[in-house]
Amino acid sequence: MQRLVGEVQHYDWGSDQAIPEILGEQPNGQPWAEYWLGAHPKASSVLAGGVTLDQWLADHPEELGRASRDAFGDRLPFLLKILSASHALSIQAHPSREQAERGFAAENEAGVGLGDPTRIFRDDWPKPEMIVALTDFDALCGFRDPSSSLVLLSGLGKLDGLDEVLAPLGQDDGLAKVVATVLSGDEKVVTVVEGVVAASRTYLEEGTDEAVRGLARTAVELSEDHPGDPSILVALLMNRVRLAPGQQIHLGAGTMHAYLGGTGVEIMANSDNVLRGGLTSKYVDVDALLDHAIMTPEPCVGEYAVQVSSGVGLYRAEFPEFRLWALQGHDDTLSLPATDLGRILLVTEGQLVAHCGDEDCELNRGQSAWLPAGEEVTVTGQGRGFLAGAGVDADRS
């Protein structure tokens, strides 16, 4: 058991307050978008002795656990983050394992360098992910039923050109056709989107239907950071969900999504593969996105952890690369699950003390520790936190 210090990512969409507050550090005017805990080669966490976690695991792969090594080799399969957004992230989707392997090999063969900004597949891994809200957290997740979208958009009034753009929604493959048309960036589409945003501003001043107001609010919020971006109309075809603290959504291969605002704990497969569709200054490949994204309606509902033992809740998501537990300290000792795996323990409120044999590790808010496979760890204290591990072992509790 060793203390672990993560790496901060200063992406421009990040909040400048939330992560410094959690870590007990002074804000410095920069956006603190993400705090990474894991062994990602781009920004590995550092152990107490100054060794990076990726180097430590290269020298001590047995700490990953046999089940993880059998499935993923000598590589930590997950990346844990604190994420805090004050602006929307890009509309995006992620590939399946088969798609990632195929795409990675194809780009290698084509000679696209890993540092090339047009490179899409930076590794051959999938990138399923889960976000658990620490504050109210807004996100777009999957497409709503097209008939519902048509009703909501009609609530803004008759808009020039919109009916023509949305006409294919009544067809079996209508979503794919509409998204392709919108993301083409055609000047007529941009004009339509600008009309939708203008009508949305008017509706927020005068309209009363709460569902239509929600759609209008999304359009106006996104246009403030991305004026004229045609993907705003794609966003209006998607489910918008507000997670309460403690709720999660999880996203498999192909699910279109965008985080809009709030602070949460995110866990994902240890991959950099992102297919972007808009709301970003980064490279967008519309054809690649359409080839990989799910273009049929999907539900998006926040879920709480399911209690599996005293003070321990499991967030249900069947991904082999990761599993996440919520920890609530109380007067009794908590026994941490998945002793046959390497795990990361993160405290997000108060204080928890991890015990392993004669060793104690006191963790305050924002602090974390690496727990090697084979170590039976218990926790005391009144704090809250999270435990992350691979999703492949036989211990499902």
UniProtKB/TrEMBL annotation:
- EC assignment: the record states 5.3.1.8
Q: Cross-referenced SUPFAM superfamilies, in alphabetical order?
A: RmlC-like cupins
Q: Which UniProt keywords apply?
A: Isomerase, Metal-binding, Zinc
Residue span, Phosphomannose isomerase type I catalytic domain: 1-144
What is this enzyme's catalytic activity, as reactions? D-mannose 6-phosphate = D-fructose 6-phosphate
Co-factor requirement:
Zn(2+)
Chain positions recorded as Zn(2+) binding sites: 92, 94, 129, 257
Signal peptide range equals none
Q: Name one GO biological process term.
A: GDP-mannose biosynthetic process
Any one GO MF term held by the record is:
zinc ion binding
Cofactor mode of binding and number, as noted: Binds 1 zinc ion per subunit.
Q: Which residues form the active site?
A: 276
GO cellular component: a single term = cytosol
> Which family is this sequence assigned to?
Belongs to the mannose-6-phosphate isomerase type 1 family.
Name used for this protein in its record: mannose-6-phosphate isomerase
- The organism is Cutibacterium avidum
Q: Which gene encodes it?
A: manA
